[in-house]
Amino acid sequence: MSDSTSSSRITSLDIVRGVVMVLMAIDHVRVYSGLPAGGPTSGIFFTRWITHFVAPAFVFLAGTSAYLYGQRVGDKRKLARFLLTRGLWLVLLELTVIRIAWTFNFDFANYMLAGVIWMIGWCMVLMSAIVFLPHKAIAALGVAIIALHNVSNFLPGAMTSLRQSSVAWLWKILYFGGEIRLGGDGPPLLVLFVLIPWIGVMAAGYAFGPVMQLSPERRRSICLRLGMALIAAFVVLRALDVYGDPRQWSKVPAVQPTAQTQGPPRPQMPKPLAFLNTAKYPASLSFLLMTLGPMFVLLGLAEGARGRVARFVEVFGRVPFFYYLLHIPVIHLLACIVSLAREGSVNPWLFTNHPLGSPQAPDGYTWGLWLLYVVWMIAIVLLYFPSRWYARKKIGSSNRIFSYL
Question: What's this model's pTM, rounded to 2 decimal places?
Answer without folding.
Answer: 0.92
